[in-house]
Amino acid sequence: MSIAEKKAAEEKATKDNPEVIISVENVSLAYSAGNSSNVLEDIGLKLHQGEFVCLLGPSGCGKSTLLKIIAGLIPPTKGNAAMDGEVIKGPDWHRGVVFQQPPLYSWLSTRENVRFGLKMRKIPKQEGLKLADEYLHKVGLLEYAAHKPYELSGGMKQRVAIARALVNSPRVLLMDEPFGALDALTREEMVMLLRNIWRETGCTILFITHDVDEALSLGTRVLVMSRNPGQIIREFKTSFTWEFSGENPSRTRYSQNFVEMREKILDLIHKQKLYSTSSLE
Ligand SMILES: Nc1ncnc2c1ncn2[C@@H]1O[C@H](COP(=O)(O)OP(=O)(O)OP(=O)(O)O)[C@@H](O)[C@H]1O
C-alpha cells in the first residue's frame, strides 16, 4: 500500500468506523487524599485504532499522570479509564509503555532484555528468541543482541526499550517523552524510526512530548493540556506525518500550514504558563 493509500485508510478508519480502544471518562486525580486541588480534573479522551495522538502541555500539567492512569500504574481518584470497554485495573502487555529513561536490566543482554516480557508470559524460549531478534532487527540493533545495556548509547537503549514494548504486539503504545534525553540528530532518527514502525504495525500510540515540531511531525491528533487543573483544552487534527516521507522533510516543516499550527499551539502553551504563574501570585 502506498503512503497516500495508507493515509486515506487511516483517515477513513477514524472517520467512518472509529473503533475506540482506550476510553477515559471524567477522570480526576489528586495525589494525596487531603489535597483539595486535583492534578487532573474531569478528563475525557478516546483513542481510536491506529491513531497517533500527541499530548502537549506546560510542565507539571499532568501529562505523565494521565499516561500512567491509562497504563494502569495508578488508579484515578474519580472516573475511569477503559480498554475495549473494560476498566483498566493494572498494567497489561496489551499496553506497552516506553519512558524517557528506559529501565533496562543491566545484567541481561539486549536480546534478553527484549525477550523479558515474553519470558514472563511463558512464551517458549525458541519462539521468544526468534521474536526478540525480529524486533531487534526492526530497530536496527540485531548486531548488538549480545551486548549489555552499558555498552549501548542513549539512542540505542531507547531502541531496545521500543523493541521490548513492541515484541508483545501491544495494541496501544504509551510513550512518555521517549526521545527527551537524546541529542537532536539521534532524536530525528528515532522520530523516523517510530513513524515507520507505526505505519508498519498500525498500533495506536499516545505520545507525550515537549517538542511541538515532534508532535506535529508524528501525530494524527495533537492534544494540548492546561495546568492547575490539568485538562485537555484543545485538539488539533493533523496529517503532516504522512508528508514526512524522508525525501524532503524541510518542505513540510517550513510549509505555511505547519508553521501556523506550530505558532497556534506554542501560543496556547505559553498562555497556560502565564495563567498558571499569575494564578500562583
Ligand atoms: N507521585 C507523585 N506524588 C505527588 N505528586 C506528584 C506525583 N507525581 C507527580 N506529581 C505532581 O503532579 C503534577 C503533575 O505531574 P506530571 O508528572 O504528571 O506532569 P507532566 O505534565 O508530565 O510534567 P513534565 O512535563 O514536567 O514531565 C506535578 O505537580 C507533580 O509534582
From TrEMBL:
Signal peptide: none annotated. Residues 22-252 form the ABC transporter domain. Keywords: ATP-binding, Cell inner membrane, Cell membrane, Membrane, Nucleotide-binding, Translocase, Transport. InterPro entries: AAA+_ATPase, ABC_transporter-like_ATP-bd, ABC_transporter-like_CS, ABC_transporter_ATP-bind, P-loop_NTPase. GO terms for molecular function: ATP binding; ATP hydrolysis activity. PROSITE patterns: ABC_TRANSPORTER_1, ABC_TRANSPORTER_2. PANTHER family: TAURINE IMPORT ATP-BINDING PROTEIN TAUB, TAURINE IMPORT ATP-BINDING PROTEIN-RELATED. This is Taurine transport system ATP-binding protein. It comes from Fontibacillus panacisegetis.
